[in-house]
Each structure stands twice: as structure tokens, then as C-alpha cells.
Amino acid sequence: MNNTLIDYEKTKNLVFTPDQDYYNDIFHQHATSGYTEAIHLAQERVSDFLKNNRKPFSGIRPEEMKSKVENIDLDTPLPDYESLFNEVDELYVNHATAYHLPEYIAHLNCPVVIPALAAEVLISAINSSQDTYDQSAGGTFIERKLIDWTSEQIGYSDKADGIFTAGGSQSNLMGLLLARDYFSLEFQKWNIKLDGLPPDASKFRIFVSDKAHFSNHKNAWILGLGEQAIVHVGVDSRYRMDPKQLEKAILEEKAKGNIPIAITATAGTTDFGNVDPLTEIARIASRNNLWLHVDAAYGCGLLLTEKYRYLLNGIELADSVTIDYHKSFFQPISSSAFIVKNKLHLNIIKHHADYLNPKEQNYDALPAQINKSIIQSTRRFDALKLWFTLRYMGKKKLGQYTETIIAMASETADLLEADKDFELLTDSDLGVLVFRYKPSGWQGDCCKMNLHIKTKLFFSGEVLVASTKVNGIFYLKFTILNPLTTIAHIHTILSIIKKHGNEYIFS
Ligand SMILES: *Cc1c(COP(=O)(O)O)cnc(C)c1O
Predict the structure, then answer these.
(1) Residues 6+ away with beta carbon under 8 Å from 399
(2) What is the distance in A from the centroid of ligand 1 to the CA of 452?
(3) CATH code where residue 160 lies
(4) Probe residue for ligand 1, chosen from 171, 298, 336, 376 as the CB with the greatest number of ligand atoms within 8 Å
(5) Which end of the chain has fewer CB atoms surrounding its CB within 10 Å, N or C?
(6) Is the pTM value of this prediction over 0.85?
């Protein structure tokens, strides 16, 4: 009888010897040396990435990159970490886009702060999942406190709540989902969650500016309303939503028999970095009983500045807000949040599963963040990165980074405006400048020439800029999101742009 029982004392002291190859690669109590070796080697490669990179991009062509990756035989593992890291250097690290260099001035990718990278080490190794208290413990409360802190920065009361999400597109989806379901419940006594879309759902209308993020369109489609539900409102000379045109558009849609349900205002447009007039838009939303969602994916950094916080005045009037910490709080991807002014609205999302968050459970006593999540059940503890950042650096320093960036963008705008060979469309509340090289007196095709400049820069890897089209015209775009960018960098970048432009003209 006795020898069939497990000897617990013996199993506790079980030692896995190194030749027990089977256990070596699992993260467990006897694997600390293997763990330390792998992480140490990874750190060395990251340090080399910082030390050796002088250009934001190697310039490698997709066909070469593709064949390097395609040639790997995934069924034959490598003999050791050293050869693994060497291979990954070739396939990835040596060619990765380096966001931390000031010559990277293209998209909304920020350099990241170091305390957040330290947090990542804990997040991925301990691997908590944020759905329920029994899977995350302290993680649940750390996330909740950061949501409360963010709500406070917005100017919300303690009635607010929210959740960390994978990104701004997902947060925007949550905003429109709540807008749609709230409208139906409140004004049509129709429960979309239970009964699906109401018969007149194809008449629902959502108002966004011409410069709003494309996720609004995709989200309208995902929500079953179709992209046709999106009404484009005209913009002013700085490409911000024009409140007069908004009012007019709402009246027009009503006259057509359509049903306005929501407005998405953008606080920091992707193309121009300008903030829609939030207070006036909020007034219009309230007069028309429309849900107001503010997409502050980019502009959220203004929350932390003393000097420019006023640009977000009125954000506290929104029903919901999108925050991308991975855009303007210098956090590694992913780190984002969706915040609602009235936490009761989040009840729309709740769905009970007996094995995870049963209906009869008291969620004040035993909380479950999954009740607020739309599409993620298992969810990373991304909140810890922001926690490390705030506890180590503080809010003020992050705010100063944003102030430095805004000052640099404004100096750059002055430079572009003073140079008769550049055409700048407008200045920016944040750090985006849309412009083109247009040498005075030259009569050629400016769109082709600027496209040539962009392509040349990309495949030389020396400077990475973005581009966009405005009224069918091709423009170059700077997104300054690095507090280390100086006016000397900008001078150099502009002279390289001119060099490639002139080569095109005189070739
Ligand atoms: C980047 C951006 C988004 C999308 O955010 P992701 O985190 O990339 O999903 C939404 N809105 C605006 C204004 C953005 O700039």
C-alpha cells in the first residue's frame, strides 16, 4: 500500500541534472542558469544593436530579406544559443528599423524608455494573464490603479473605468461598440448583444473628420454597420474637424432619414498631429445626444505636459477615450488603453463563462478584468511597463519629453517655411510636418520627384521619412517623436532631401 503513494518529500528535492536534456529548456525552478545564459546573450545583442547602428535602416531589399528567411529549415534546430543569435542577427536584428535614431523620422514609433524594458523581462518570464484575479493577483490592481491614474489625467471623476488593450485600433473599436449598443439600448430599447443588429442599423451614422484614423472605417465594418456608416466632416486650414461642418453634416443625415449615433474626434491626427476642437465638438455631441469618443492615440502625451495640456481641454467631456502609451508615453509595443467616463457603460461588454467569471461571483471581492475586455481573454500584463516608468522616472519627465518634441517640430516648421524651396502644408500641435521639396522656378513633376526622394532615402537607409497624399498630391512627412532629435539633425536631413531632389532634377 505504502509504496504506491507518492513520496512528496522526495519529489520536492528532485534535482534535474544537466544531462536531463528534456527539462533544460523549460522555465522552472532548476533552470535558472539556462535562463540567465539566454537572457544575458539577448542583452548583449541588444547592446550591439545600439552600439553598431549608425543608420535607421540597412536598406536591404525585400527580395533579399525574403530569401534569407525562406532558406531556413525550421525542422532542424541549431546546436546552441550562440548560433541562434548569429542567425537572428542576419535575419532580423542587423536589418531592423532603428526607431531610437533621430534619422528615423517616419511613423508614430517612439524610442522607448529603459525602465519599461526592464519590466518586459518580468512580464514575459512570469507571464501573468490579466483576465482574472487568480491568474494575476497584484497585476489586476496595478492595472486598475494605472487606469484610475490615466482617468484622472483626462479629468474624469472616480466613476470612470477602463482597460489596457492591444492598441489604439482596438480601443477605438471599443468606443464605437459602446456607442452603438448604448444608443440602441437607450433610445430604441433594443439589446444588440442578445438580439443582433436592429432593423434600422444600416442607417446608423458616425461622424469623423477627413483626417481621422482609418481604424474608424474598419471598426464600422466590424460592427456590422459598414463603412457607409462613416460620415466625413470637412476640416479647417489646419486639418482639424470643423464644428460648423459637423453640425451641418448631422442635420443633413437626419434630413435623409439616417440616425446619428456617435462622433469620433481626433486628438492628434496621424497625418498632421493637430487636435480637433474638443470642447465645441462635445457641445454638439451633447445637444444631439451623440456618444463622443476621443481618439487620443497620438495626442495623449499632452496629458502629461504643463505647457500644452490646454490643447486637450474638453477631453473630459468625452464618453470614452483612446490612449496609446506605445505612441506618446515612450512605451514598448503593446501598451494602450480604453477609458470610459461612466463605468456602468462597460457592463455592455460583460459576458459570463462558468469556468472563468461565473455570474454569481462577487467581483468587488474577487475582481476579473476580463469583464471589461472585448476580444482578449488571455492578456499580457502590459501595465507593468507603465508602472515601472512612472515609479522610476515620474510623470514630469515624460511630459518634458513631449514638450521638447513639440518645440523641435515648431523650430523645424519655421525652417521649412523660411526656405523657399520647401512647401509646408501647416504647423503641428504635436510633431508631424507634411511638406514637399519644390525648388522655386522648377516646372517638373513634384510628386514624382518627392516619391523619388523618399524611395532613395529608404533604400540608402540613411534617413527614413514617411509620406502621405493630400488632395491627390504626394507629400513627404516627418513625425518627430524622439526627444533627442536636435535642429542639427533636421538640418542634415533636409540637406540630404535636397541632394536627392537635385539629383533627380539634373539627371
Ligand atoms: C496610431 C493611431 C491609431 C491606431 O493605434 P494602434 O495602436 O496602431 O492600433 C488610432 N488613431 C490614431 C490617431 C493613431 O495615430
Answers:
(1) 301, 304, 305, 306
(2) 27
(3) 3.40.640.10
(4) 298
(5) N
(6) yes
